[in-house]
Amino acid sequence: MNAKSKPPSKPNDSSEPPQSHLIIPPIDISEILGFLDLLRTKDHGKEDIYKLANELKMEFGDTLGVVRAAELLNLVHTPGGDVVLLPLGEKVTKSRISQKKEIITEQISKLPIMEKLTAFLNAQEDHEASRDEVLDKLAEVLPNEDAEETFSNLLQWGRYAELFGYNDDDHIFYLDEEEDTDPPMSSQSSSSESRDSN
């Protein structure tokens, strides 16, 4: 009697992104912008990573970090050993400073780790948490990463995108929510109505 064959394994149905997609590289946004400007000058916006490292006078590992950061934001992609400027990355290079920030901010806000932390803070009272609470959350989400380093990198990008703020005195991490500064309309409407009735 033949042994029953095992049913084919089902693909992973988890909607959780790979951990590599959750890690914020220790790269400043200005480094990404400078890298994009350089890549745009290349034929078809494409160049070998080693050549870019030499031109930038950077260690290859450091160059990979910048490439990884730009790729995380969907500004470039890396077929083989090359880096290719994507349409969104090209748009960044052609935009004014304010438009550059708008594009980068939107891309940062879409990152899975940013979405996770935003959801975490939204669930907290006053949409804030202590530094230790955030570190615990990051250790839970990224158990194989250094939570302190992740916190620092995440805060840097989050501040640039005006998603998060951090109070250094109280060690409180919070959602950077815009406050409504418009004056209330009720009093204006009442006075206008009273004038019209006279």
Q: Would you kindly provide a written description of the structure presented here, covering whatever features stand out?
A:
By secondary structure, the protein is mainly alpha-helical. Helices cover 52% and strands 10% of the residues. It has nine helices and six strands; from the N terminus they run αβααββαααβααββα. A hairpin with a 4-residue loop joins strand 2 and strand 3 (82-85). Helix 4 runs antiparallel to helix 5 (97-109). The longest helix is centred in the C-terminal third of the chain and has 14 residues, at 147-160.
Quickly describe the structure.
This protein is mainly α and 198 residues long.
How are the elements arranged and paired?
Blueprint (H helix, E strand, L loop, with lengths): L28 H12 L5 E3 H8 L3 H13 L3 E2 L4 E4 L1 H8 L2 H13 L2 H11 L5 E3 H11 L5 H14 L3 E4 L4 E4 L10 H12 L1
Antiparallel strand pairs: 1-3, 2-3, 4-6, 5-6
In the CATH scheme, what's the topology name of the largest domain?
A: Arc Repressor Mutant, subunit A
Counting DSSP E segments of at least 2 residues, the number of strands comes to: 6
Terminal residue distance: 100 Å
CATH superfamily membership of the largest domain:
Winged helix-like DNA-binding domain superfamily/Winged helix DNA-binding domain
Write down the domain tally.
Answer: 2
Average pLDDT confidence is 84
Spans of 5+ residues with little confidence (pLDDT < 50)? 1-14, 180-195
H/E element order: HEHHEEHHHEHHEEH
How many strands, which pairing sense, and closed or not: the largest β-sheet?
Answer: 3 strands, antiparallel
- In CATH terms, what is the architecture of the largest domain? Orthogonal Bundle
The whole-angstrom Rg is 23 Å
